[in-house]
Amino acid sequence: MELMETIRRRRAVREYTDEPVGEDQLRALIGAAVQAPSAMNQQCWSFCVVRDAALLAQISDEAKTYMLRTTPAGLIPHHLEEMLGAASFHIFYHAPAMIVISATMAGAWAPIDCTLAAENLMLAACDAGLGSCWIGFAQGWLGTPEGKAALGLPDDYTPIAPIIVGHPKAEPPVVPRGDPEIRWA
User: Fold this and answer.
1) Most CB atoms within 10 A, among 67, 95, 143, 153?
2) pTM assigned to the model
């Protein structure tokens, strides 16, 4: 697949088959992620792979509760509040795997470096015929002491990018993009 085709085809996937993602495939995605640029080549990222369905369900429940409890009233749109409050809603969409990219050090550039690695990972997943989705709903709880403990992360790590990965049930449609605003100086 050509790079520009992969960039155009990559979409957030929220429906997955039950087929597991193999360890070799997950390692290949992480291998692509670490090719991302990083400030001063510090490569201050760590990858935690979660494939245990019970742990994913526990994190989903904890993250929903945390988000509803800690977000100031009125800041969560009503439809999202209802979705997060539904016991049946699984924030990871029952994907068979999640890769959490965490910053291993503090600093202004570490979250950006992890985000660059995340985009490489998601593009590599698309190129391999896999689906992926960055799950923002999980970020808050994963950053708590309890969330870090669930992942076995050191206290000084900061979870940045919880990305689910799996075999998509269907290829998501291409979403039209508007013309970019470009300013020439």
Assistant:
1) 95
2) 0.94
